[in-house]
Structures are given as structure tokens and as C-alpha cells.
Amino acid sequence: MGDKLIRVELDHAAMAQLLKREELQDVLLNVAESRIPHDGGVYEAEKKVMPGRAIAVIKPGDAHTYYKNLKTNSLLKAVK
């Protein structure tokens, strides 16, 4: 179309608030729960608020699942 350039400035404080909102945390937790492997192990999904943004974490829930995951990489395979 045209050769005009558009400059966009982001409000970094507002972006930080957006990335920490409860709604986004719930979406992240839903995605994490959908990625839990169904290999008979016990896995836990939890949401956390870090300094910059919200994250979701999937981790083994017991020692047996932890060592099984070390051998088979089932968590890595589940999130690919």
C-alpha cells in the first residue's frame, strides 16, 4: 500500500499488569492441565506469579513419577 511507517509505543506498566492478571493465570493453568501426561503417573499443575509475568508449572507429584520421568522424559514429550 503506502510507504508510511507506524510507530507503536507500549505501556510497559500496563503490559506487566496484563501478564499477571488472574484471567491469564487461569488460562495458563488450563493449558498446563491439558498437557499433563496420562502415563499412570501422578503430576501436579500449579500457577505462579513471577516478578515479570504469570507462569504455569507441571511437576511430578511423587518420587516414583519423578524417577519415571527422568527415565522416559514423559513431561518433555507431553509439552512438545
- Kindly report the average pLDDT value: 91
Strand order of the largest sheet: 1-2
What gross morphology would you assign?
A: elongated
Helix content: 40-55%
Distance between the amino and carboxyl termini: 39 Å
- One letter per element, helices H and strands E, the order comes to HHEEHH
Task: Walk me through the structure.
With 80 residues, the chain is of the alpha+beta class. The protein is 46% helix and 18% strand. A two-stranded antiparallel sheet has the order 1-2.
Compile the SSE list and pairings.
Elements: H1 12-19, H2 22-34, E1 43-49, E2 54-60, H3 63-72, H4 74-79
Antiparallel strand pairs: 1-2
Note the main attributes of this structure.
2 strands, 80 residues
Provide a quick synopsis of the model.
The chain is an alpha+beta fold.
